[in-house]
């Protein structure tokens, strides 16, 4: 039975990427060797790394002479402390828009003073705070562009004089924004780019090397940049599959074209949430995420009935995060519109049966 995969992460990737990746596990480009057994210093893998880095820069429209792309390990969670190690001198400004932001705040607190500009914790993070001003004297401003768990997304970014660090784990490569506004972008691969194991970091070289503290080698962006992400063994398979997904994205027409599709999927999903009296959206309308739509049943007693309809339709991973409950439709780049239509149909079927 065909599955419709709404998992929040790890999550759906393009079918053709799965095919190519599985072929490369058996035999990489007719070399007689598996991607899993070649040296990361081999010509074949160095080419994979170069390609992945240059495709990432191309999709983000970032100039190669100003930005460095790194593929690191430790997930986005490692970047909470790593970004602070590299940029925090004394004080930084953070926007608290969800559980991941809060974790970033906690880590940065280990290295300096963290000023939380604003927080939406008062309403279980169902909106993005907008009224705040970032002081001029901070070392950097940190924000989370898309709040995977709560289904909110920043549509505007504040005016700021300091460098901007952004956790883009769940919406990187999904919409056409001015990425050059950011000085450090990081994203765990497993939400819109590839399998778990690699973390993409795009860093503006000019904002590095300004802190006095000693930085452990493995946490130093400059060390990894100097070795072109080969300071130690990179997560080769994850980088390879990420490269395949970035190639796929280019073939789709790039970020601008995929944004159009993402918008069509989100519009279809939210239209049904708003139309159907049995459902209610969780996030404030103006802050709704194009990637993760969160919603609840208005009558909890219909839960088993709806869950059965979803199972019958082949829908996977629609359950909400435990801190929000209800449902979450994660509609990453590789998810076809058809899958959204299947969920919409199940919602309409529930209305007929109820
Ligand atoms: C999933 C996620 C993380 C955590 O990523 P790991 O790679 O598991 O550390 C951090 N931030 C956001 C926005 C996420 O969606």
TrEMBL record:
Primary enzyme class: transferase
Keywords: Amino-acid biosynthesis, Aminotransferase, Cytoplasm, Pyridoxal phosphate, Pyridoxine biosynthesis, Serine biosynthesis, Transferase
Gene3D superfamilies named in the record: Aspartate Aminotransferase, domain 1, Type I PLP-dependent aspartate aminotransferase-like (Major domain)
The keyword Amino-acid biosynthesis belongs to this UniProt entry's keyword annotation: yes
BP terms from Gene Ontology: L-serine biosynthetic process; pyridoxine biosynthetic process
Similarity comment: family membership: Belongs to the class-V pyridoxal-phosphate-dependent aminotransferase family. SerC subfamily.
Protein name in the entry: Phosphoserine aminotransferase
Annotated organism of origin: Psychroflexus salis
